[in-house]
Amino acid sequence: MATTELTADDFQKTLDDSEILFIDFWAEWCGPCKQFAPVYEEVSEQHPEITFAKVDTETEQELAAAANITSIPTLMAFREKVLVFSQPGALNAEQLNQVVTAVKDLDMEEVHKQVAEQEQDQGQEQG
């Protein structure tokens, strides 16, 4: 499956329906975004089991703001609805494939445990 356009309206459903979700935040005027786009598309075709989405930060400004996007392109990866990767800057195909492999190889039991511990720590700091 190639990349899909993601909007604020379908973000949550896409996140809920995807075990692994990669999102490329981009804009038409962004040179590095244009360089990254064919790499992202190519890698998406090599991994049909993963959802690859794109967010146009110009038309989806609220979604970009909610994701704290401050520079583009920014690549985010979610696994089991947990943000496990977020990095600005264009990657080459080898780097992107390394990120895909790393996300696929994550021990999600450990990740969920760490998230729960962080949430518990934050709750104690606020209380």
Automatic annotation (TrEMBL):
Superkingdom field: Bacteria
The Swiss-Prot or TrEMBL record annotates one GO molecular function as: protein-disulfide reductase activity
Key words, A-Z: Disulfide bond
Q: What is the lineage of its organism?
A: Bacteria, Bacillati, Actinomycetota, Actinomycetes, Micrococcales
Origin organism of this chain?
Nesterenkonia sedimenti
Cited PROSITE patterns: THIOREDOXIN_1, THIOREDOXIN_2
Q: What is this protein called?
A: Thioredoxin
Pfam families membership: Thioredoxin
Keyword field contains Signal: no
Domain named Thioredoxin is located at 1-105
Question: Which NCBIfam families is this protein grouped with?
Answer: thioredoxin (TIGR01068)
